[in-house]
Each structure stands twice: as C-alpha cells, then as structure tokens.
Design goal:
Blueprint lengths: L8 H4 L10 H8 L5 E2 L11 H11 L11 H11 L6 E4 L1 H13 L5 E5 L4 H9 L3 E5 L8 H11 L3 E5 L11 H9 L6 E5 L19 E6 L12 E5 L1 H6 L11 H12 L1 H24 L3 E2 L6 E5 L4 H13 L2 E2 L11 E5 L3 H22 L3
C-alpha cells in the first residue's frame, strides 16, 4: 500500500468542511430539483440582456486568456465609484478577494474579529490561514460596528470584518454609524467592509478611498445577477490594492465574465428595474409571512429574514419541510438569529411556490414540536 503524502501542518489539523452545502447537492440528495430556489441570495430576476449578449459574443474568443490586469473593467468600475483604477482590484467574486485579503494580512496565530453568526466564508478563510477568530455578538439582529472595532483595538487584531447591509439577517446601518466606528479604528488594523448588497442600501458611508485601513468589497453576483460568473471587486488605497498582485491568480477572472461585468455596469436602467423588483419581492415575502402569522426583519438586501416564532430547532424543521416540498431556503446558524429562515427575493412563480407550501411546512414543524 502506497504511503499517503503528508499534508502541511496547518491544513493537516483542519477539519474537512465547506461553508455551504450547495442547492445542487441538496437536489441530488432529494432526487428531484427544487421548484423554487430561494436560499442562496441569487438574483432570480437575471442579468442585464446587454450583459448576456456581451458574454455570448465573447464565448467565441474564449480560446484566449482573459486580460490579467482587468484593465477595461477596472477603469469602468473606477469611473462608476469615483476613484482611480489604482484604487480597484478585480477578483473571482468577493469570496476570493476575502481569501486574498486574509492571506495578505494574517499569519498563523494572528487575531481577527468578526460577528458571531455572520458570513461563514470569511471565517473559513481566517481559519484556513491559521488566524484566531474573535467573535462579537449581534445587537438587535444587526452586526455591531462599534463593538467590532473596539474588540479589534483591545485585542491587537489584524483585521475586522463588517458586512453592511448584513448577511444573513438583512439589516443595514446608516452611513454615520459606519463612519463613527471607522473613526475609532486604530492604525495597522484592516477593516473589511463587505458591501455585497450595496445597490439595495438606502445610502452608503463616505470613506476616503486613500484610507489604507479600509477595503470595500463589491460584487456582480447580487444586484447585477451574475453569481455564476464569479466576479467582484474591492476598493482601497493604492498601496493596499497593489499588494493583491503579490498573491492573486492573475488569470483567474475569465474573459467572458469580464465582458459581462463591463456590460452590466453600463446598463443602469436594468439595475434600476432590478432594485425595484427586489423591493416588490421583499414586500411580497413580508405579506406571505404575515398571512401565516409570522414577522419579518427589516431588509436592505435581496432577501428577507422571516422570524418563525420559535427557536433554532423549530426554524430548522420549517426549513426542512420547505425543502421536502421543493422550496430551497437557508437559515442563520447561531442563536438567537437562527430562529429565522432566510428567503431570497425572486420572480412571482418562485414566491407563489413559497406561499403555497409555507403553511404546510409550519404545520409539520408545529406537529413535530408538540410531539404529534
């Protein structure tokens, strides 16, 4: 029998795990596709037709590598955000950029501050590079910017992660709250401000793009409807942006995604329509919840957290019963937020399916809770 190659010490002691189980895996397990895919915060309203056309046209050129500098897209993003191309790095979605940022900043044993129950992929990267996670509880179902920054300063952390608008609860802090927290952030601590849902927020903080303490993460996965293309960007001080060239996969962003993102960014009319459709879908989800005696949390994202009125076990039973009936949703993973299920905004047909089976799922969960 051949000897198995020995892993390096750090990965050798990590568990086999992934942050999320994909809906495709769940479909294989249940032996049938979902009728409504409302669990991954995808934009079911779809990308701009101009983006689709651009990607189709570029498919014939796919024999070429994509531009490793992302020159045209960085220029367009810079103009869109009011910065220079030197302030912008493009990557294979926010998840990849988060991993690169952690790799740049975190050595084994370094401390990193995040929210308990927040976006688990960031935690996955920190653990993967040997960092020590320090978690701050949510406050009133929202991440607590001041407490996160304070904990980072008290503990000598290298990074602090803040998602605004928030995943998984959907809440939002007005600009002055984020700006006040940033004002107290010590030097030599990097704030990762995840703004994946920026296009749905009422307003965003005013932050000096030359402040080396901040990296702002954005994506084409949510409002632009291009989750499968895996493309996003970060805005930061040029000195920090240049550092990404030391560790990034220079040919990682494929040319089809670059073409689609460039076209999507230019189609502001489609983006406006999508934001309006998402707002209407949020209202519909809230109405469905009310019809079933449930409440929802305020959302500035493309999903809604529905309070199931019990504990995490009850919410899990509702989620399972929904999945058994063909409706894929997810839920937060830490109490007390795990009393909720998280329902993505989507087209009318998907929400019709959710409305149809939610009463059945609640009845099943209540029956199980009563021991019936």
């Amino acid at each position: 029998m051949r000897q198995i190659p020995t892993l390096a010490p750090l990965p050798a002691r990590l568990p086999d795990s992934v942050p999320f189980v994909g809906p495709e895996t769940l479909e294989r397990q249940r032996g049938a596709p979902f009728a409504a895919r409302l669990g991954a915060n995808e934009n079911g309203f779809g990308p701009s037709p101009r983006a689709i056309a651009a990607m189709q046209a570029e498919a014939g050129e796919v024999w070429k590598y994509g531009d490793p500098t992302n020159h045209d897209l960085r220029a367009a993003i810079a103009a869109h955000c009011g910065v220079t191309p030197a302030h912008v790095v493009v990557g294979e979605g926010i998840d990849t950029l988060l991993g690169l940022a952690v790799r740049l900043m975190v050595a084994e044993g370094n401390r990193v501050v995040s929210s308990e129950g927040g976006y688990p992929t960031f935690d996955f990267h920190v653990t993967g590079f040997g960092g020590e996670l320090l978690r701050v509880p949510y406050r009133d179902d929202r991440q607590d910017p001041q407490a996160l920054v304070a904990r980072a300063g008290e503990t000598g952390a290298r990074m602090v992660y803040l998602c605004n608008p928030d995943n998984p609860m959907g809440g939002w802090h007005p600009p002055e709250v984020i700006e006040a927290a940033l004002a107290t952030l010590p030097d030599d601590i990097l704030l990762i401000l995840d703004e994946a849902y920026a296009e749905f927020a009422p307003a965003l903080p005013r932050i000096d793009p030359d402040d080396p303490r901040v990296l702002r993460m954005r994506t084409f996965s949510k409002a632009h409807g291009m989750a499968g293309a895996r493309i996003g960007w970060a805005i930061g001080a040029p000195v920090m942006i240049r550092a990404f060239d030391r560790v990034r996969n220079h040919f990682g962003v494929n040319r089809i995604a670059q073409a689609g993102a460039l076209a999507a960014l230019a189609d502001t009319a489609h983006l406006d329509r999508t934001v309006a459709q998402v707002a209407a879908a949020r209202d519909r989800i809230a109405a469905i919840a009310r019809d079933n005696g449930l409440t929802t949390l305020p959302s500035a994202t493309n999903f809604v957290a529905v309070d199931c009125g019990g504990d995490g076990g009850f919410a899990r039973a509702v989620l399972t019963a929904l999945g058994d009936r063909g409706v894929f949703v997810r839920m937060p993973w830490v109490a007390p937020q795990n009393r909720c299920i998280r329902v993505s905004c989507g087209p009318a047909g998907a929400l019709d399916a959710f409305a149809e089976v939610l009463p059945q799922a609640l009845a099943m969960a209540r029956q199980g809770a009563s021991g019936g």
